[in-house]
Design a protein that fits this description.
mainly alpha, DNA polymerase, domain 1, Peptidase_M20, M20/M25/M40 family metallo-hydrolase
Length: 94
């Protein structure tokens, strides 16, 4: 069996994400953390940033898909893309 990289998100960044998402008028639910089997590429990137003093975390918007990521059943809610962009912009400018 293979193995994959894991990541521990930064609590400070999670707090910022929750604050920004909660303040957005189109967001109906915010889940602070959840166990998530992310992909190696994203986990390795986050770990690389963290090891150099940066902060890292996942942010999922409109991802209540019936299938897992990268599967034939994955289906993002396209109408959530503008909300995701606005949240990311707020975090960057924050």
């Amino acid at each position: 069996m293979g193995q994959s990289a894991t990541v521990t998100p930064d609590d400070e960044l999670i707090g910022r994400i929750v604050d920004v998402a909660t303040a957005h008028g189109d967001v109906t639910e915010v889940i602070r953390t959840r166990a998530f089997a992310g992909s190696d590429d994203a986990n390795l990137l986050i770990r690389h940033v963290q090891r150099r003093g940066g902060k890292g975390a996942y942010l999922m918007v409109g991802a209540g898909s019936p299938g897992s990521h990268h599967s034939e059943n994955f289906d993002i809610a396209e109408e959530s893309i503008p909300t995701a962009i606005e949240i990311l912009e707020s975090l960057i400018r924050g």
